Amino acid sequence: MDSSAMTDGFHLVVDALKLNGIDTIYGVAGIPITDLARLAQAEGLRYVGFRHEQSAGNAAAIAGYLTQKPGICLTVSGPGFLNGMVALANATTNCFPMILISGSSDRAIVDLEQGDYEELDQMNAAKPFAKAAFRINKPQDIGIGVARAIHAAVSGRPGGVYLDLTAAVLGATLEVDTAQKSLVKVVDPAPRQIPDPESISRALDLLASAKRPLIILGKGAAYAQADKEIRTFIETTGIPFLPMSMAKGLLPDNHVQSVAAARSFAIGQADVVVLIGARLNWLLSHGKGPLWSEGTQYVQIDISPTEIDSNRPIAAPVVGDIKSAVGALLAALQSDQIQPTAAWLDALAQHKQKNIDRMAARLNADPNPMNFSSALRAVRDVLARRPDVYVVNEGANTLDFARNIIDMYEPRKRLDSGTWGIMGIGMGYAIGAAIVGDKPVVAVEGDSAFGFSGMEIETICRYHLPVIIVVFNNGGIYQGDKIGTPPSPTGFVPNARYDKLMEAFGGTGHHVDDTLSLTKALSDAIEAGRPALINCVIDPTAGTESGHIQSLNPKSGLSK
Ligand code: ADP
Ligand code: TPW
Ligand code: MG
User: Fold this and answer.
1) Quick count: other Cβ atoms within 10 Å of Cβ 67?
2) Which of 39, 120, 387, 427 is the most exposed place for a label (fewest CB within 10 A)?
3) Do 244 and 343 touch, CB atoms closer than 8 A?
4) 29, 37 in Cβ contact below 8 A?
5) CB–CB of 420/93 below 8 Å?
6) What's the pLDDT tens digit per position in 86-119?
């Protein structure tokens, strides 16, 4: 090799990513990273160009969740970077591994606030919202910088990492020889975290003393890809389980031991609860209040030691990665050591049946116009025949009803608003899932929720992705406005035709206002595997304010 041959920062970044098995970049092009995107594409990486950085970031984040490899989002400096930050913060909050790579302006100008194009002190802006933030100031540090970003994103509790690439570093040249030597191939970036054997026997002892044990599976358990270990542990011990929303499908929702249909009863009556990759945050009422009983004791399996005792004292913490931890529990488990009582299993079965019967009445009604239950029953029945399909879900009523009604049968197939209850993940998650999952995606979207990332339907059409969007169109946030009244803070244009947006970019639009046409449109669209949007007309009065979390919505004490 000619030792005086030169390369530059752009090439080195692409080389560093490729060396570490990264094959896809989600981004929005512009100064100073346009050539980075071009070069990445030319060098065989898949570059997916978006219409807004937040969606690109959401696609990267969900790709990270699904693959355990950091999803890469590429943005321009200043506002482009900030647009991507919501996705990075959301990834960190949800424990998804991703790396936001942004180009940045001239450091000297930024630091003296002399007014550069898209000037922003990006690394410091990113810090509070990221698991880690790094800036590369010398081209020969690109290899080590990328390696540090990968380790930070996927090790321990995964999260969002910011990687700042100055325009100067990207354009800087150096000798090929020096450049090659500076690259780093990471070894074991997400090492197993083996739990202390003492913590395993403590957990098994507590469970052996339990009469009414319950397992709660969270999205950490889904992320861990310990599907076999978890299923074996649940089936061997006979402990009933409850999936958090994105853990649905880890064991199929129709599994006999699932007590999702008796959720409040199960949580309220359990004497020992095993949390597997689920935090005791607002989604579980912090382990307090009317849902929980005061005497409940906990086993908590989590990779993050500081998650323990966050809301309630944990009698038996098991700190480690879920695959190793559940494996260790199984290895140490003695036969018949854990015995949920027959009374407990009977009571759960009875509550479950009662709630299923009660729900069946609502699901089988077929009102005109459709409400959430009737439309979702149609969606549920179509999806039951295609367990391989990804389900993306956001909205208020649309989210809460769909979570309860649509059964999942395979792990990591349900992707939703998650820990923040955020709107705007819909199209980004759908695109990310379609790309890394290589299966059709059905996005069940509130009409408000859809609007946050709706322009990405052009992206979906451009890349011919098998994404089918069902817009639950009730004309607003929670409810629609009465025709002829001035717009309220929550209302939209009544009778909007979201299906026509999809047609504008070459996708298929469907407009449906009864369950039969919804069933047909959705089955056809999944079969076709092409971009489609089903505008699903829902009674504008059917929803309730804040969906199922009205208790979190403060109301003016003065309003009448
Ligand atoms: P959910 O919203 O489904 O209840 P959370 O996001 O609140 O789930 O909790 C996920 C938890 O899983 C986090 O506390 C995180 O530290 C943990 N976690 C993520 N990956 C792993 C893993 N591989 N092993 C153990 N714990 C993990
Ligand atoms: C980033 C607040 C929570 S739910 C929601 C909003 C705006 C939309 C609900 O209406 P939608 O669903 O989607 O039509 P439905 O079926 O009840 O009519 N901004 C962000 N995140 C959140 N959570 C909000 C605002 C919100
Ligand atoms: Mg709505």
Assistant:
1) 17
2) 387
3) no
4) yes
5) yes
6) 999 999 999 999 999 999 998 899 999 999 999 9
Give the whole-angstrom CA distance, residue 400 versus residue 545: 12
**What is the residue extent of each domain of the chain?**
6-182, 197-349, 365-545
Ligand 1 pocket: which of 69, 95, 192, 324 to mutate (most atoms <8 Å of CB)?
95
Instruction: Note whether 6-182 and 365-545 share their fold.
Output: yes
Cβ of 502 below 6 Å from ligand 1: no
Whole-number Å distance between alpha carbons of 473 and 535: 7
How confident is residue 4, by pLDDT bands cut at 50, 70 and 90? confident
Alpha carbon separation from 162 to 103, 152, 494, 531 (Å, rounded): 11, 10, 41, 32
Give me Rg for the CA atoms of the chain: 25
**Secondary structure of 323-344 as H, E, C letters:** HHHHHHHHHHCCCCCCCCCHHH
Residue among 190, 67, 70, 185 nearest 130 (CA): 70
- CB of 424 within 6 A of ligand 2: the answer is yes
Residue 472: CB within 6 Å of ligand 2? Answer: yes
> What homologous superfamily is domain 365-545 in, according to CATH?
Thiamin diphosphate (ThDP)-binding fold, Pyr/PP domains (3.40.50.970)
pLDDT, position 559: 61
pLDDT tens figures, 369-401: 999 999 999 999 999 999 999 999 999 999 999
CA distance 112 to 114: 5
3 state SS of 27: strand
- Fold annotation for 6-182: Rossmann fold (3.40.50)
3-state SS of 363-400?
HHCCCCCECHHHHHHHHHHHHHCCCCCEEEEECCHHHH
Structure tokens at 203: 């957990």
- Tokens 């092009």 appear where? 29
The CA distance from 288 to 281, in Å, is 10
* Nearest-ligand number for the alpha carbon of 244: 1
Closest ligand, as measured to the CA of 547: 2
Q: What is the pLDDT of residue 93?
A: 98
Burial class (CB in 10 A: 0-12, 13-18, 19+), 237: buried
Task: Give the atom of ligand 2 at the shortest distance from the alpha carbon of 479.
Answer: 18
Task: Give all strands of the β-sheet with 160-166 in edge-to-edge order.
Answer: 46-49, 24-27, 71-75, 98-104, 160-166, 132-136
pLDDT of 558 reads: 78
CA 394 to CA 413: how far, in whole Å?
A: 14
Cβ contact 387:410 at 8 Å = yes
- In the chain, what's the furthest Cα-to-Cα distance? 81
